[in-house]
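Q: I'm teaching a short session on how sequence maps to structure, and I want students to see two examples side by side rather than one. Could you give me a first protein with its sequence written out and its structure tokens following it? Keep the formatting plain so it prints cleanly on a handout.
A: Of course. Example one:
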Amino acid sequence: GPHGPYTTVHDHVWAIKNDSTIESSQDTTSPLWVTYSNIGTNVRAMNGIFAFNNMVVVGKEDGLWAYADVAAGISVNDFINITPEFDRHPSTSHFTRGLAFMGWLYMNTRRGMVRYNGSELQDVSGVVTGAQLADFGGRIRAFSLDSSWLYILMDTPSSDASATKTTWLLTLDESGGFHIHTTHKLSIGDIYDAYTFYNGTNTHLYIA
């Protein structure tokens, strides 16, 4: 069976098995898995797998691989690399985190951020990095969201890898354009994921 990460599309659980193969369950309760191979080369690591607009989107170190209609079935040639430019700049830090927000799938790259709407890929690294943001390293550790905001947890540019390294919590909204807000400075350097929960009164952000 697969080792994860996992996502769910069309009542199927999809997961990474190795660097060129993903697997899909028969349905959300079935113990049986179907293998789909040849998603790029096994020389390049498979970093993430995401659900977006009923699509399975696979992030590898050499690019983003997308398939548009899972319900119609999958053959070995259905996943294509929509970002060939990453083939010249591969990294195991590309596309390790991703989350759908306001019609776009936001994902990290090694030192920035891109978004994909099913037909167009945009580099939006300038939203979270720039000359006036010297304390922001560009390395996104986690995404979360609520109905209005995309929450971004981002490293500082220091080479410090300790558990108390500074991480910035940024919030982004798209009302009339990109608006980025520096919300909190955290002494948590080993963040893996984040989750937002609304309890009827307040929004809480949980960090793992």
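Q: Perfect. Now a second example for contrast.
A: Example two:
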Amino acid sequence: PNHATDGKPRTGRQKHMNITITRPTAQHRIITDMQALAESVRLGNRILELDATTDSTEAEASERRKEQDAVRERLDSLLKSIEHRTLVVTLRGLNSSQWAQITLKNSRTVHGRVVSDLPAIAKEAAPLMLESAGWADGSDVEFTGEEFSRLIDSMTDSQVNALMQTVQELNTPVVEIPKELTLLAWRIGLSTRRSCSTTCDARDVSASA
């Protein structure tokens, strides 16, 4: 007869469970108009300069306010344009076999140290991780893994580094709940229980009165 681990006989057939791992996903933003981004930063700095300016006369104050309004209007328009040209990709972590093959392929040993070609890893891994894509303003876009690979070729160094950080975090996720998080959850639970206890005691006192 079939017996459970506690020694007691099972009363029926055990249902087979197909247990799988749900790998993590994350959204990554890619600004495709870097010139507009640079201009928006310049305009933002100009607004800060104008805000910090001390006017000697009312005429100067009036001219400064006019420039502030013009710069803010230009900046608002530019930020909307940047949002329209910002691609938001949803990436999912690869399984261990895929990730290991990609990192091994794009790594080499130099003077006894393993050196990884991070841009090459990002270019190869990110397209395989692509789940979906769309513009930040909500507009739809057709975007394939092959197109993603070509886009990575045109990225700046800082953009590739940012993408690689997302890729690495998704493929080397934490596998246990951190002790700090467990402790925080315990403290929150304790605080909630104390709050409930205080509220319940107050209600009991009110009811008895």
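Q: What should students look for in example two?
A: Point them to this: The two ends are 63 Å apart (CA to CA). Also worth mentioning: The longest strand covers residues 25-31.
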